[in-house]
Amino acid sequence: MGEMNIASTSRGNAHATMEDVAKLAGVSLKSVSRVINAEPHVSAKLRAKVEAAIAELNYVPDTAARSLAGSRAFIVGLLFDNPSPNYTMNIQKGVYETCRDQQHHLRIDNIDSTVPAEKFEAQLAAMVRNSRCDGFVLTPPLTDNVVLLDFLDRSGIRYVRIAPDIQPDRSPGVCIDDAAAAAAAARHLWELGHRRFAVVRGPASHGAAGRRRQGFIDELHRLGAENPIIEAEGNFSFESGIAAGAKVLAATPRPTAIFAANDDSAAGVMVACSQAGLKVPNDVSVCGFDDSWVAKSVWPYLTTVYQPIEEMGRAAAALLLRRDEPDNVLHELDFSLVVRASTAPPPQ
Amino acid sequence: MGEMNIASTSRGNAHATMEDVAKLAGVSLKSVSRVINAEPHVSAKLRAKVEAAIAELNYVPDTAARSLAGSRAFIVGLLFDNPSPNYTMNIQKGVYETCRDQQHHLRIDNIDSTVPAEKFEAQLAAMVRNSRCDGFVLTPPLTDNVVLLDFLDRSGIRYVRIAPDIQPDRSPGVCIDDAAAAAAAARHLWELGHRRFAVVRGPASHGAAGRRRQGFIDELHRLGAENPIIEAEGNFSFESGIAAGAKVLAATPRPTAIFAANDDSAAGVMVACSQAGLKVPNDVSVCGFDDSWVAKSVWPYLTTVYQPIEEMGRAAAALLLRRDEPDNVLHELDFSLVVRASTAPPPQ
DNA sequence: TTGTAGGCGTTATCAA
DNA sequence: TTGATAACGCCTACAA
């Protein structure tokens, strides 16, 4: 004992296998397996022996063998479609961290949902069949793609959805309370003294965008707003923000505070202000949503709602990896209002 | 023959295996394997039979079994550290596409290179050992991390580097000619009539940033520039762009054209212009580099150099997956100048 | 609590 | 050009 080292494993300089560990520890293969998988019914003494051998040999279980033989694959799949870079990278980072901490790998799959329906199913089938995965994390807009959800359910594949709009109890999921977050933004502007408001909407298909708008408006009414709230269409893009900003700024009387459904369109609104000869925040306050990377790529820095996107990724992966079958509940994470320089009291 | 269908595979409703295909085609296991792997010495007739069976059974090879038995894993690893969202997502998209087209999976691994050296090696070892991968695609700044490169070489693991700065012939790689690209930007500004130039540098540690600066300056000299070229430090960030912009705009006489080493700092320069009461492009022209997503999130839209980042990802993965041992050559892809609204002739 | 036998789906070796 | 048979490294029964 103790004389064996990494050079004496069964296959020359190859990595140690379970068999090497078993030999060194003087136990059976199955016992090593039990320790590795933290199965019950293992005596402390045996566990200690095995763990010592593992450490000495620098043993790491082989993922391919494990997934071939067992029911788990130690792989988490992350699915997205037409990703917005900032949002996606943050989600991915969070998912990755949970994977790493729980000894899983992260596999990426892009899905193109713009293809015809039949090709879409074929695409999914190919992806999933070839893909021993323990489950998938779904990001918007895939989160609400019924064809995909049906497919996964039919195939018996687990998944967790991030920020689902529809059928919230169909699967485990993580989200924030968009309405409450928008209400916080409304309160912030109200307390600064604003009384004339405008809202730049997100895409109609995007449920969270709708909840943000509604939450903002409802809170204003609750606070006693009397002036009509001006609204303009938007689609989350910078360009749509410029157009929407120009539109609401043309209203008479002009709004003194503009809430946009996300940061990108808020950045566009700021450009519209500048084009109209108005200073942010002295003449007009602008508030965004997401606290994405844009928020600090505009001047003045944008007041916005922080969404814990990375945390959502972490939580989603953790939900997926729970051994006990998780309930189909939607986990709500905390947001926070980030007050920067784009909001201030209205002119006199 | 032909009567067998997917329901009659060996294990009920499970997926078809190679054995099912072999039986249906009336050939041996190994023959199916040969067809799948496009090995030589297969008669056309046999191939046809096997392919028909594969199609009928909807057979897809099992990745886990393949990597356990064989030498390939059908997995490409993508490594990054401290990713800039836009750049990284583009690289990732390109790498993914090649993977998908060549029936490989894409695995993500984040590396934290800010940890102490010893922990860093341990981190790498854990990642690689546990990771049957056919190789890795390295993105900056990992591309030039000597500890990582040494580690991979020592472990005999293949890798392809994207935009390497150091030791360009150490491994296969893809890049663009940064100096030539910056020269193109210089020519564009020169031809607009500018004669007073400023450069906002990138981080000193970033080789490409240095090449951009040098390429820009050299080209101006070649064109016959006589005025001194004003320079300011920058680190690729929006904030550093604001500071650098303010600095170069304070010079007398003021430059009429500013070239920044990337789009983010160019966006900062535009803010500095605005803060100095100068209009872009009427008073000052600003040119960036990357054609990242920021370029169209500022107003006016940024003139910049397009880097084929997604294409670089595609090419890097393709290089990695070549069966014939590739040479350690650096493949240069094409850039292009994207003229938008932030550049114009200088004031009279 | 521990160990034994068999199989997961493929590739590799060698013989035919 | 084809085919039997043995790995690959681990897990799931089941037995002790």
From TrEMBL, chains A, B:
GO terms for molecular function: DNA-binding transcription factor activity; transcription cis-regulatory region binding. Residues 16-70 form the HTH lacI-type domain. Keywords: DNA-binding, Transcription, Transcription regulation. InterPro entries: HTH_LacI, LacI/GalR-like_sensor, Lambda_DNA-bd_dom_sf, Peripla_BP_I. It comes from the Bacteria. SUPFAM superfamilies: lambda repressor-like DNA-binding domains (SSF47413), Periplasmic binding protein-like I (SSF53822). This is Transcriptional regulator, LacI family. It comes from Novosphingobium aromaticivorans (strain ATCC 700278 / DSM 12444 / CCUG 56034 / CIP 105152 / NBRC 16084 / F199).
